Amino acid sequence: MHHLYPDDVLSLLKTSFLGLSEEEAKRRYQQYGANQLTEEEESKWRVLLRQFTSPFIVILMVAGLVAVFFGDLADGMVVYGLVIANGLIGFYQELKAIASIKALKMVSAPSIRVIRDGKEKEVEAKYLVPGDIVLLSEGDMVPADIRLLESSGVVVDEALLTGESLPVEKLSHAVLAEDTPLYARSNCLYRGTTLLRGKAVGVVFATGDNTEIGKIAKRMKEKSPESPLTRALGEFGKKWVLALLVILIFLVVVGVLQGRDIKDLVFFAIAQLVSAVPEGLPIVVTIALVVGAIRLSREKVLVKHLPAVETLGSATYICSDKTGTLTVGRLRVEEFISYDRSKLFLGATLCNDAEKDRGDPLEIALLEWLDKERVNWAFLREAYKRVWEHPFDVKRRLMAVVVSTGESLDFYIKGALESLSLMCERDCPQEIYKAHDSMAQKGLRVLAFGYAKLSKVPESLEEVKIKIVGLVGFLDPPKEGAKEAVETAHKAGIRVIMITGDNLLTAKTIASKVSIYREGDIAIEGKDLEKFSDEELYHLLKRVSVVARATPEDKYRIVRVLQAKGEVVAVTGDGVNDVPALKVADLGIAMGSGSQAAKDASKMILLDNNIAIIVNAVKRGRLIAKNISKVIRYLLSTNAFEMIYNSLAILSGFPLPFYATQILWINLVTDGMQDKAYPFTKYEGDPMKEKPKSPEKVFVGRSQVFNVAYNGLIMGICHYFLFKYLLTIYPYQIALTISFTSAVISQWAVGIQEIGEKPFFKNPLEYLQLNLYIYLGIFLGLMLQLTAIYLIPHYLHAISLSLEHLPYALLCPLLTFLGVELRKWIAYILYHENA
């Protein structure tokens, strides 16, 4: 509607200045529906059931059922307790997320003044229909999308919708090009925005889901992507269990062909499956995420979705808004030029309707500047009485007053230089234009101030000839620490893109001040993104650091294009306009002072709106990812060892090296005692000097698989030959018990080695301090193992060992420890040679 004349809009909507008839309004209400956002609520039962359908959860449920079937009630209860707890947490989090559309639904005025049947009346906002003539005044929230028919001094806050940090002027008489972007449609008002000043008459042209906010709400129905952690663990779960099943079925078949007891083989295979499925991993991951979330809460970050803690550590792009995140969200005078200092100060004081903390943001900034310049503006307002005023004129973009001291009349005016220059008594000097352009080039919003001495109160502005007394430039300044935070992010391999609704000059200025925009980078306006295909845009975004005048669709598209290429994208936002991008981002981060809709669509909320908090949280996320990686490596190494050892023994025709109950016991005193301590491991080195890695590579990548296979083979082959030798010098029961004890101690040895990535003997004291809780877990496991061998050996098919047997039980753990140490030394030397 912005490209049509008012009369054409009225004709198209089949209405007039007299409004619709009540009968016609009712008919259109039936046709278009209520002026509210539709909400498709999913059954809570479906939401609950969905929490139990991920591959890893299904695997755990099967393993728990098998454990209960074969009498291991305790193990089964632990598994099902874990599954239920995780499911309920996920259920709660998803119900919270569903509230996001409800929050958008609340962005409307409860009632509104309209003209129907030629008479003014009030109706509930939900009953508005296209064609209604609406009356709005200062302070009103716009209830629908409206084309202005008449306007007087209308200034609107559109930050909620467009991200524009400054109020925008609206003009009913403007007719714009059809392709004019949303932020530049100066003749339209949009639902959810607020009139800061002026009065307006307009015609409704879109209601409910057809409004701009309604289009945003449709985006919110899209499902948020799985976190990289959840995705990686899901893929791992499928592959790991498939491999386990293939190996165990093969071993059972070989055992049957060898003439072994099928019942013992099946029980062995099931016990091995239960042990090899790392059911403790979800617990450890949850502990790591909870610990991280608690620490982040102390650093003013509220985590709504636990996997988001790790996601931040994997981020390769941060798409940040400007206002309130990179800047303080409050205008200040950045620069000024005075041609008559006293008159400039008086103009800023007297041609100003603001109070200390209330009024137009520009005028409040002027008062703060005067305070800084030690001007007692409150006293001056008392000394100079206003006797005439010309309120802010949207068309001419100026405001003027006449004040009296009792002896003379002084005229003060402020506004756009192009307006004030037309009122100069002589041509405006070129130096003033140059100064103005210089300030504008820096991204400053510039106000000019003028003065004239009068003999009488003017009847109109045309009577007055002025002299320019100064220029004042305003800027929403960068937050303290923002520059350092951005530079830290760059060092960590994270690309930061500022996406804002502000104009290009202002955006570039702020981006330069905080090191986002650097030499060689590209700054672009949102409307220009349409020129590029998704493939072209992705390559362009590698060089783009500023996207100005961005619409919600632009921000959404940028996130989707980056994700399609495997990037992990974090998005910050505070307005309704940010909701689509927040929803689909790998990590949506809302500002604590932002809209409720933005908070509901996000997975993390910053209680202190500052990018420095985000970058600090990246450190925490990387530590958590590293610790989860370590615990996965440890758990899979011990599981791989048992599979390799048992496979070699069965294929060689040896007796089984473990009973099923011993496999489950080993799982208890090693994995069960050590893995819960890994989330408390300290970081080695500086996490922000490393480049981001995809979670799949960190958790189950080639390096991880190699290390798991290496650890498993060392333990498996060592124990195989030890068992083979023991069978030649001891009865089976003694050989079995030594093997059983050796396996437990070997897994403790691997647990110690996997605490850190640097070699243990490089700095043993420093290494031991990485995580003292691991050694507490080993101590508890030792107590349990001594109990098993010396107090209840018959329950575990074992016997009490003598001092003669202990050296054999310690041989493989020592070789395992040294073998892993050798691997780490080789990796350490190669890393430093290539660094």
Description:
It is a single chain. The chain has 835 residues and is an alpha/beta fold. It has four domains: 6-32 and 109-142 and 145-206, Calcium-transporting ATPase, cytoplasmic transduction domain A, CATH 2.70.150.10; 228-300 and 617-834, Calcium-transporting ATPase, transmembrane domain (Up-down Bundle), CATH 1.20.1110; 303-328 and 479-616, Rossmann fold, CATH 3.40.50.1000; 338-472, Calcium-transporting ATPase, cytoplasmic domain N (3-Layer(aba) Sandwich). The chain is built from 31 helices and 21 strands. An eight-stranded mixed sheet has the order 8-21-20-19-9-16-18-17, with helices on both faces. The longest helix has 41 residues, at 611-651. It starts with 5 loop residues before the first helix and ends with a helix. 49% of the residues are buried. One of its GO terms (molecular function) is ATP binding. It is found in: Endomembrane system. Keywords: ATP-binding, Magnesium, Membrane, Nucleotide-binding, Phosphoprotein, Translocase, Transmembrane, Transmembrane helix.
